């Protein structure tokens, strides 16, 4: 190697548009987890993805569009898969099992995506044109309300559409504010999750009229 070669800039390997977008999404997820929407910058995301900010904006129209793709879409896809895998059951025993499964899956989902959910809470506005940051969340609520409605004979005390949202809020708040709510030594995570599941299911059962 001669001296001239040593001074040549190192060129990045050529990547496909799909690979660049994938790297940007992975980098964005980490930045949004760590810094929230406001704190994450497109420059930092581009550096972490080993690309340029100009390339980032060729792949995504805006920071909000990247946030939508990196944070909202994975959560939407998760909910879509759950809805597809758990159709509304027809018999009462299966409906009871499905209700408990909904709560257990929701707890796992919230725990697994806690950092991204926090990022969404801090994001404020970038929810996309639909106005709903997790597009499939509406379908998830509809599915949960359908399960509850199928178990209710007569007029429910509380609209199942409201009940399923209250259940989601209880599980979400229990996870996100766990350190505030439970002093050290009161209970382990499994006991807390079991208590919340029983609390939510008791509310659902009491709503059967």
What average pLDDT do the residues reach?
79
Distance between the termini: 84 Å
CATH C-level class of the largest domain is Mainly Alpha
Helix and strand content put the structural class at mainly alpha
Q: Would you identify the CATH architecture of the largest domain?
A: Orthogonal Bundle
Strand content: under 5%
| Percent in helix | over 70%
Total number of strands? 0
String of helices and strands: HHHHHHHHHHH
Helical segment tally?
A: 11
CATH topology value of the largest domain = Tetracycline Repressor, domain 2
Shape: elongated
Largest sheet: none
Unreliably modeled segments: 125-131
> How many structural domains?
2
**Alpha-carbon Rg, integer:** 22 Å
Keywords: DNA-binding, Transcription, Transcription regulation
DNA-binding region: 41-60
Domain HTH tetR-type: 18-78
GO molecular function: DNA-binding transcription factor activity; transcription cis-regulatory region binding
Please give a quick description of this structure:
It is built from eleven helices and no strands. It is mainly alpha-helical.
List keywords for this structure.
Tetracycline Repressor, domain 2; 209 residues; Arc Repressor Mutant, subunit A; 11 helices; mainly alpha; elongated; single chain; 72% helix
Your description of this structure?
By secondary structure, this protein is an all-alpha fold. It folds into 2 domains: 12-60, Arc Repressor Mutant, subunit A; 71-206, Orthogonal Bundle (Tetracycline Repressor, domain 2). Helix content is 72%, strand content 0%. The chain is built from 11 helices and no strands. The protein has helices at residues 3-6, 17-39, 42-48, 53-59, 63-85, 92-112, 114-123, 135-151, 160-176, 178-181, 189-206. Helix 2 (17-39) packs across helix 3, helix 2 (17-39) crosses helix 7 (114-123) and helix 6 packs parallel to helix 9 (160-176). The longest helix is centred in the first third of the chain and has 23 residues, at 17-39. It is elongated. The model is unreliable at 125-131 (pLDDT under 50).
């Amino acid at each position: 190697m001669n001296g001239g070669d040593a001074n040549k800039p190192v060129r990045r390997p050529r990547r496909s548009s799909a690979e660049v977008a994938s790297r940007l999404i992975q980098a964005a997820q980490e930045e949004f987890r760590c810094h929230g929407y406001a704190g994450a910058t497109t420059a930092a995301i581009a550096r972490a993805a080993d690309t340029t900010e100009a390339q980032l904006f060729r792949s995504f129209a805006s920071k909000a569009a990247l946030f939508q793709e990196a944070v909202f879409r994975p959560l939407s896809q998760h909910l879509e898969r759950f809805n597809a895998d758990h159709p509304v059951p027809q018999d009462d025993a299966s409906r009871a099992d499905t209700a408990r499964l909904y709560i257990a899956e929701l707890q796992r989902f919230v725990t697994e995506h806690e950092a991204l959910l926090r990022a969404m809470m801090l994001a404020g506005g970038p929810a996309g044109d639909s106005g709903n940051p997790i597009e499939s969340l509406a379908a998830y609520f509809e599915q949960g309300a359908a399960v509850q409605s199928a178990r209710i004979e007569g007029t429910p005390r509380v609209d199942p559409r409201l009940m399923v949202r209250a259940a989601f809020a209880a599980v979400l708040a229990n996870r996100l504010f766990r350190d505030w709510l439970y002093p050290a030594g009161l209970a382990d995570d499994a006991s807390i999750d079991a208590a919340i599941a029983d609390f939510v299911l008791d509310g659902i059962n009491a709503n059967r009229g």
